[in-house]
Amino acid sequence: MDTDQTDLEPSELGTKEYWDSIYERDKTNYQDHGDVGEIWFGEDSEMRILTWLTRNDVPTDRRIVDLGCGNGMMLVELAREGFTELTGVDYCESAIDLCKSILSSQSMHDVKLEVADLTAKNIPNSLGKFDIALDKGTYDAISLTPEDAQTSRTAYVRNVAAILENGGLFIITSCNWTEAELVKQFSSAFRRKHTIPTPSFNFGGKTGNVVSSVVFEKLST
What we know:
The protein is an alpha/beta fold. It contains 7 helices and 9 strands; from the N terminus they run ααβαβαββααβαββββ.
């Protein structure tokens, strides 16, 4: 990864304490009112990923991991589309607890869930290997880490590559990084395979995208 890459301005959104508090609140709201909480980037973002998977005839038995699964709604939608080998990972135990409750309410008992820090030096061997990894805002949050975000980003790229099979797909959606920046930052282990179209805007005669959604393929090691 390019060590000269400019980091983003640090934010509380890059701290585990922030997300622990969010998911503790969401757990209570779900228990009391059945409110699943926020869907990161909204349902449209989930549908764009699901549409890409189904249009490209991705077999429903592919091993898929949702990195930073939060409340697990992406896993719920994948299961509804018939995908059977699903795993959710989050570093917040409260997020995993919330996810378990929501999946149970949907009678989706076969989804595997694990607490793991994707920026750690080593990640649990129990995670195993996957064919597809999904990231919808997790890399964004990591990039906002107040303490040495670059080291955390580098570890994340390394760990995502480690849990994917050669030729496996990594589908990332980001509002903090452009497609070109993502391609550069993940170039040590991935190549761009496809760009999923996202909403665009026009300003000052130039066109840009609100979010970037890129499909990467893991390079052979």
